[in-house]
Amino acid sequence: MEIDVSRLLAESPLCHVEWLNQVDSTNSRALKLAAESSLATPFLIGADQQTAGRGRGANQWWGADGSLMFSIVVDMPQLGLVAAEWPRFSLITGLAIGETISEFLPAARVGVKWPNDVWVDDRKICGILIEQGDRLSDRLVVGIGINVNNSFAEAPEAQRRIAISMTDAGQGRAFSRTEILISFLSHWHSLIKQLTEGTVNLVERWSHACVLSGRPVTVNSGTNETVGICAGIDDDGRLLLRTAFAMEHCYAGTVRLLD
Ligand code: BTN
Known about the structure:
The chain is an alpha+beta fold. The protein has two domains: about 5-205, BirA Bifunctional Protein, domain 2 (2-Layer Sandwich), CATH 3.30.930; about 210-255, SH3 type barrels, CATH 2.30.30.100. Helices cover about 30% and strands about 30% of the residues. It has a seven-stranded mixed β-sheet, with helices on both faces. Strands 11-10-9-8-12 form a five-stranded antiparallel β-sheet. β9 and β10 (about 240) form a beta hairpin. It is globular and about 55 Å long. The termini are far apart. Bound molecules: biotin. The site of biotin has 21 residues, from α2, β3, β6 and β7.
């Protein structure tokens, strides 16, 4: 089913939507457009297919037919935030995706995995990549890939163990990507408002939704690997890891579950 752009514009705060059949990466296209200050924000770039979708670090993002891939350009001061607040903003974005998926799949075991993946049944359903074109820019590109109608049922075992889609979790049901987008924008808007008003207890909300909390994990920072029990996040959005010696606060790294 195609994305209904008119409905998206009518039922969300988006100023502009560009939906493409194919693009290299919606984040790359959005970063290019973000530099054009005449384009009002927030605006969304989406595509049915990406030929060079990017993930965090050096990872690629393979989005099969039926997945939902888009990037939204936001102006942080316009949202009432400063660009430096993007780690908390990124956590809020993961929570909003989690709430959206729960709305469509109320019986599913949905959670967030630090720093900003969303999991269902301990498998990844969504990845988020936030980028800033220019270090001094107030504009951020929030790139999101959600496995919606792209089933992993026929995928190799190794992939089925780590990835899942909404249709897999919903016993083959097909979902409207337009409705998912509209719902996400509404959850996101409400959480951003709570963040700017200081009415969201991010540590509590995140730690409660975190699939890693209380479980043994390793955090690989590229140079060293730390093993410990995840204890949620701290006020700055860093992952808390109880090791044999201390409570470590992790800024960055790849987290892997050990159980
Ligand atoms: C990750 O899990 O590492 C992040 C994945 C982000 C993928 C999305 S798909 C839409 C947008 N365009 C990209 O090139 N990447 C993001």
